[in-house]
Amino acid sequence: MAVLFLISLPFVTPRVAASDEIEYFAYLPSLLLDGDLNFRNQYEYFCSLDFENCVRSRFKETFLDMRTATGLQINFGPMGTAVLWLPFYLAAHLFALAAQNLNPAFAANGVSMPYIYAVSIGSVFFGWLGIYLSYRIARHYFAEWIALGAALTILFATNAVYYMYVAPAFSHAASLFASALFVWWWRRTRETRAHGKLRDWFLLGASGGLMTMVREQEAVFFVIPLLEIAYAMFGVLRSRENFAGLKKWFAGALVMLGGAFVVFIPQLLTYRVLNGNFLPARNVTDKFTWDGAHILDVLFSNFHGLFTWTPVVLLAVIGLFFLWRRDKFLAAAFLVALAVETYLLGSFSTWFGGAAYGGRRFINCTVLFVVGLAAFVDVISTRVSRPLIVGAGAALIVWNLFFIIQFVTGMAPRQQPVDMLEMARNQFVGVPPRLLEIARRFVLNRGSFFKQ
Predict the structure, then answer these.
(1) Pick from 340, 361, 383: which residue ends a domain?
(2) 3-class SS string, the chain
(3) What domain count does the chain have?
(4) Same domain, yes or no, for 370 and 393?
């Protein structure tokens, strides 16, 4: 994995242009260089790079012309992604300062290309780290070739690879890592926490606070330890043990929530400064309806549906049921977490995720998909030869990469449903003849892919 990470770095597209990307990135120069949460100068800088698109995309209208309740520029994105990018950003700033001393024309302004490169590489690094942690969980239950194959297949056969390499300045690679870290630490410390080790409870909560600070929706993963606590308490009551057992689990829950709160404090203060209260922006919360009206859409729609755009995930979800054979509680917890996540995303009026490649908001569930796919392959490996399984995985990866090519070249629409029959036809007769031309554009004029 380390080798693949290193040799893949030339394929990273360093770019901050979409509104979400700008919002996540703006925290770093605003806090570190300006010492405030007024993002106006950062927004003006990125808007000036392509003013026509800035107006057409309504970025200017939303982020420059409008204000929050406290009179500042709007920022819908939480700050967790910027926190994870921080070491890479600081390294870029040191480089920029050194270059500025050698050449005064080089400005260490916090928003130039070295900084963009740094956060893009940071996203790839954290994406791979999340894949590795997912692999470690799968490896605990399954053979190494199965666990590794499942991890690499989920990475390259889903939209995770797109948001690590094509659009790394979004929050999704950081989200992949943060949720994988939370689930990995939860599984690793199941025994020690069951014996009342409060330090491990606190660290679990702290990782959950970070996870929620990357994307608020990831808080749904707290359902996993909460189910664990409820199940354990029910067992104590059923066995009529003394209340010492209940106190142990209750204390663990409180310490976990305390750890999450401590880590989440910077985000609460940011909400307060920007929005005048301790809640996300109303523009975000107003999109949520609690009705789950779009649950089937987020899974099966031609408009960025999870299973429709990334069919390998369907195999992974089936595999979560097979996981029952290895770890009943793990399988149940993962399925409940995925169900809650699906309900949450299906309750948003913007369930399709904008001009997204696939169901991008499900990327935080990558850790579940890796383990699920490993469980699926483990079951069929007794009936299907290993070369055939590897070949099927490779085919799914090629299918996804060809679909990405259609998406970035305009063969598939970005903000409307895709004709899946036309897409399938292009996979065989549209993309292959253009591979040489696309490779040339990728090397010489990569930015042309974003001007469709």
Answers:
(1) 383
(2) CHHHHHHHHHHCCCCCCCHHHHHHHHHHHHHHHHCCCCCHHHHHHHHHHCHHHHHHCCHHHHHHCCCCCCCCCCCCCCCHHHHHHHHHHHHHHHHHHHHHHHCCCCCCCCCCHHHHHHHHHHHHHHHHHHHHHHHHHHHHHCCHHHHHHHHHHHHHCCCHHHHHHHCCCCCHHHHHHHHHHHHHHHHHCHHHHHCCCHHHHHHHHHHHHHHHHHCHHHHHHHHHHHHHHHHHHHHHHHCCCCHHHHHHHHHHHHHHHHHHHHHHHHHHHHHHHHHCCCCCCHHHHCCECCCCCCHHHHHHCCCCCHHHHCCHHHHHHHHHHHHHHCCHHHHHHHHHHHHHHHHHHHCECCCCCCCCCCCHHHHHHHHHHHHHHHHHHHHHCCCCCHHHHHHHHHHHHHHHHHHHHHHHHCCCCCCCCCCHHHHHHHHHHHCHHHHHHHHHHHHHCHHHHHCC
(3) 2
(4) no
* 419 confidence band (pLDDT: 50, 70, 90): very high
Q: Do 186 and 271 belong to one domain?
A: yes
75 shares a domain with 160: yes
What is the percent of the chain with per-residue pLDDT over 90, rounded to a whole number?
Answer: 88
Q: Give pLDDT tens digits for 35-87.
A: 999 999 999 999 999 999 899 989 999 999 999 999 999 999 999 999 999 99
Same domain, 295 and 402: no
Residue that is last in its domain, among 367, 383, 399: 383
162 in the same domain as 136: yes
Q: 163 lies in which domain range?
A: 2-99+102-383
pLDDT at 452: 47
